[in-house]
Amino acid sequence: MINLDKHIKPSRDYYLALGLEGSANKLGIGIIKHPKGELTATNRAEVLSNVRDTYISPPGEGFLPRDTARHHRNWVVRVLKDALAVAGLVGRDLDCICFTQGPGMGAPLQAVVIAARTIAQLWDVPLVGVNHCVGHIEMGREITGAQNPVVLYVSGGNTQVIAYSKNHYRIFGETLDIAIGNCLDRFARTLKIPNDPFPGYNIEQMAKRGKNFVELPYTVKGMDLSMSGILAFIDSLAGDMFAGNKNKLLVAADGSSVTPEDLCFSLQECLYAMLVEITERAMAHVQLQQVLIVGGVGSNERLQQMMAQMVQDRNGSVFATDERFCIDNGIMIAHAGLLAYRMGQTNELWDTVCSQKFRTDEVYVNWRDD
Amino acid sequence: MASHIIAQAQAYLPNIPLTMVSQGAEALVFTTTTHPCLPVSEQTDTTYIIKYRPSKPYRHPKLDAQITKHRTISEAKIMHKLGQLGIRVPRLVAVDAPKGIIWMHFVGKLLANGEMSSLKNWLWYLERVSAPGSATDAGTARILTQVGREIGRLHMHDIVHGDLTTSNILLEQPHTDMNDTDWEPVLIDYGLGSYSGLPEDKAVDLYVLERALLSTHPVFSEKYNAWVLEGYALGHAEVGGKLGGKKCTETLRRLDEVRMRGRKRSLLG
Amino acid sequence: MPNLFSLLESENCQIQTQLSSAMPDLIPTATYISPDLKKDFHPGCGPHSTQGTTTGPSDVVADKGAIDKDRPTEASDSTLGELRARLTTLQDQVNVFLTDRMKLGAAKEEDDKDLERRILDDGVDEDDVE
């Protein structure tokens, strides 16, 4: 049994942590409260505030590091003030300030860590560096109550199948090239779909109107998968469609022409089937019955539905969070950071350098002992 | 266990007594003592495996039918080919591709803790239950070297497995005089297998296994992998002599690249 | 106020920023250090503003002509507000300096490569060497 209360402030029976997240185009700041003792179904973490502002790039463009960092830099104080006001706290009330130390885009990470360092010194509160992926996993576990799930982490920059073993979140499967969200975003750009609220959402809406399934390459490699070939294939199909070139794949079984909606539908069906398959493979391999879906793409209803169908055939259960928690946010950084803080993990100022390639399995998860 | 899937299997296989062994990721595995073609008078008590790939309700029907058929056929073809080449593999009995059914001879046995003798269960048993040090002793080294050797031989024949994990390697004792810690590995589950002479595909095969070792057996994964690669070179030399050595070097060089790609891969959105 | 952030670090150069307080003003300064050059930056006496010359949106975004929703707010009349404005000036100075260094570095590297090619690879095709 782990003692999580060795570092509690005298005269307090709770903890407060603020988390700053800005590894991609979302700037999120949240404040979480942990009661003393182990977190259980009756002794839960409490979200005091969870504020987010998203940088949205012009249609047909991805978000560039420089403009994203500029967005974070120029909004961070306003978002921070909001987060404190909603929680009804002042900076000195906090036990620790948690920030995303990676992985992510260099410039936005930099912009946000500078804000974290500044307020830590201003208020004299310790800093805790947090791995973005571990933030997603821990927040997902807390919100859904999933004890020991296989985690499917799907976002703009990541596609991983993860399970816990011996104080680390181990990566069992992952993409061998591009991330799922990246694949969807890039296809959205090919189709010139708007980036607001986010490209994947707009693809999902179009996919709902698609009827004809176009066969695409299906590239699962054990528990890993590859998506760049599928993207290249469907991009060229879309190219033929727009140019009016003859292509027998663009003629549906009933003789009608394949539409952009059909392509969105087919792309989702193909990619999500691959994700569900590698998740099932990991479940069978490590003999676990629960699945937790985290990350921005995790809010996709079709993916959740397919996962539920798979899990049903294994008598297991699937857990997912809504967009407040699965889309990048500050609260998950606060939560995971606070768990580490309660185990005595803090970062000195010199040790707050961010890393674009901070791998999930590098983190020492000493707040779990199962 | 989902009973409707078992019921479906039984409906496809009327009058065949089925005993459920395991539910893998994409297939149910049953045992039976009935041979599909032999008349009743010639049935023996030999045990067969029936591997059934059920339809996956989450997949689009078109995709589902295509995957089930494709994987069943390619698994059967590869197993047959490997048998001809003298590589240790479960012997094929019968195939029904559209229904996703393969019959084969039984391999493996039960471990002391009642689990099937997959390499995963065996290593877990050594790491968790058995005497300290046994997970890295000479016996384990020999088994993992043999695993590498089998993969090397596979690759020398331009066949890639596609899903190398410690779950997909069974251990068996083909000779009656083998003692409790003496095993021969058999690679199974060729559903994702394919024919390829490309160093890239072979390197990805090795990379997938390397990662499975790291995630499933984190404490000793480096040692395990080093033994596998040692055996991998042996397998090449045995089948291909000097040319085998050259091919092996080529694939291992590519493996370095695949590893780098994994580590350096951009995590940007 | 003990403040020292290393903003930029590579193998052979770094930029350190310091904050000195000559009450009631906070003056940020920066130092660039590399083996061949050391340079100090001081925002000077101004006027300063939070609208920098190098801190706007990138050309790709600016060319799309949308309203810039991510502009920094104007500096307030407080000590911290003035610090923000001075920092923007300092940032402009550093950005201009580093961009020039980068261009210079690229040109130099091109020269070096050229020299290398002429001396080492003169007339020899790469594929012939093994």
Task: Give a description of the structure.
Chain B: Its main location: nucleus. Chain B: One of its GO terms (cellular component) is EKC/KEOPS complex. Chain B: It is found in: Chromosome, Telomere; Cytoplasm; Nucleus. Chain B: InterPro entries: Bud32 (IPR022495), Kinase-like_dom_sf (IPR011009), Prot_kinase_dom (IPR000719), Tyr_kinase_AS (IPR008266). The complex is a heterotrimer of chains A (370), B (269) and C (130). Chain A is α/β, with parallel strands linked by helices and 370 residues long. Chain A has helices at 65-87, 106-123, 132-144, 180-190, 199-208, 228-243, 260-286, 301-312, 323-326, 330-342, and strands at residues 14-21, 26-35, 46-54, 96-102, 127-131, 150-154, 159-165, 168-174, 220-221, 224-225, 290-294, 317-320. Chain B has two domains: 3-105, 2-Layer Sandwich (Phosphorylase Kinase, domain 1); 119-264, Transferase(Phosphotransferase) domain 1 (Transferase(Phosphotransferase), domain 1, Orthogonal Bundle), CATH 1.10.510.10. The radius of gyration of chain B is 19 Å and the shape is globular. Chain C has one domain. Chain C has helices at 59-62, 79-120, and strands at residues 4-9, 14-22, 25-34, 37-41. A four-stranded antiparallel sheet of chain C has the order 1-2-3-4, with helices on one face. The chains are: A alpha/beta (370), B alpha+beta (269), C alpha+beta (130). Chains in contact: A-B, A-C. The interface between A and B is large, with 60 and 43 residues.
